[in-house]
């Protein structure tokens, strides 16, 4: 089937006669022929199946390991002892033992950790202790080793004693604050609710004298001795 159509001017090529100034009469038309496709396009069937050149998997042990006669035991042993560039050291050599010895690597790792721990322990006293001015220089380790270690021992002992003294003072200061708070609440009629006493019903109330002595840091007044009631002898089964 043949149809006629007029191509718009803007679709014509730039080198056409229309753009070169040549006028085309209006009666002249451009004919375009459309190909009719009544049947679907079918690709040609190949003569045989052509698999890809590189398969996804290769069979194991299908390729020969070497192109020659089988190796003898002496040749295999010689290959195992020979050192090849770019490969690990052969078995039986010192290099192979160095890289594969677990005991050696464990010793190196634990030794490095122990050295760093000891260094950190001593540097903590050398930089953070209030007695760091008494720390001996490292040069005394070779000149006067006895004095070096004894001085370090004294610094550590003084540091620990000072640390314990500060902790005791902080604890006593906290206890004094608690005692003064209880005495203040007792004098003003404020009854604190102890959750342990509320749950278990054990609440030992202290007298005002005891609270005052604890708040002021004085000794407790002596309690008057009261005669204990005579204990009755328990009877077995109510008869003995």
Automatic annotation (TrEMBL):
Transmembrane segments: 103-122
Chain positions covered by the region annotation Disordered: 210-232
Source species, domain of life: Eukaryota
Compositionally biased region (Basic and acidic residues): 220-232
Keywords, ordered alphabetically: Membrane, Transmembrane, Transmembrane helix
Protein name per UniProt: Uncharacterized protein
Biological source species: Trichoderma gamsii
């Amino acid at each position: 089937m043949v149809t006629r159509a007029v191509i718009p001017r803007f679709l014509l090529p730039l080198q056409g006669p229309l753009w070169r100034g040549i006028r085309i009469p209006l009666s002249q038309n451009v004919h375009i022929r459309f190909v009719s496709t009544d049947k679907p396009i079918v690709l040609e069937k190949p003569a045989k199946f052509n698999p890809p050149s590189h398969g996804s998997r290769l069979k194991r042990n299908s390729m020969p390991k070497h192109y020659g006669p089988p190796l003898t035991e002496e040749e295999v042993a010689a290959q195992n002892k020979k050192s090849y560039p770019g490969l690990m050291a052969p078995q039986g050599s010192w290099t192979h033992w160095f890289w594969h010895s677990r005991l050696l690597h464990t010793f190196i790792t634990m030794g490095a950790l122990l050295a760093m721990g000891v260094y950190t322990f001593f540097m903590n006293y050398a930089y953070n202790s209030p007695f760091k001015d008494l720390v001996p220089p490292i040069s005394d380790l070779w000149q006067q080793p006895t004095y070096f270690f004894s001085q370090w021992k004294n610094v550590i002992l003084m540091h620990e004693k000072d640390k314990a003294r500060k902790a005791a003072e902080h604890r006593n200061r906290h206890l004094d604050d608690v005692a003064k708070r209880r005495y203040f609440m007792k004098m003003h009629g404020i009854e604190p609710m102890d959750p342990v006493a509320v749950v278990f019903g054990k609440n030992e109330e202290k007298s005002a004298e005891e609270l005052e002595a604890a708040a002021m840091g004085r000794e407790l007044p002596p309690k008057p001795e009261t005669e204990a009631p005579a204990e009755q002898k328990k009877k077995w089964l109510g008869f003995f």
